[in-house]
Amino acid sequence: MKYIDVTIQTLLFVFAIALLILSFDDGEQWYFVVLYAQVLLGPWQLLGSLTSILLKTRHYRLKIVHQLLSWIVLLVLYIIGRSTGEMPHPALLILVPWTLAFYYYLITWSEVIGKRVQGKFLPHLSF
């Protein structure tokens, strides 16, 4: 499952970069392209994070941090939108979610290619 997760996340990151490059000359439209990519990547990472937490995978504690921060950001965006009636500042809409997305991507990437602490000799025995 972790290989599928990293593969899909990588494809979504590449998709977001490609969309950004293709729409960069459109003036203000690049903003919505980035938000569109977030709509695809965000739920995927939230579900993957929740699954890892429930299954207590190797880095589940780091994913608890990701899950909590993601819900705090979503709550702040909701409160700002409801109280002002306007869209929040682009930095809050783009920079913070992409920082969280990159944080989660690094966690998942380290699960897939990270060095094993345990040796390969008699792996079923714990010394």
From TrEMBL:
- Which species expresses this protein natively? Chryseolinea serpens
Chain ranges passing through the membrane: 7-24, 30-55, 64-81, 87-106
Name assigned to this protein: Uncharacterized protein
Q: What are the UniProt keywords, alphabetically?
A: Membrane, Transmembrane, Transmembrane helix
Q: Identify the domain of life.
A: Bacteria
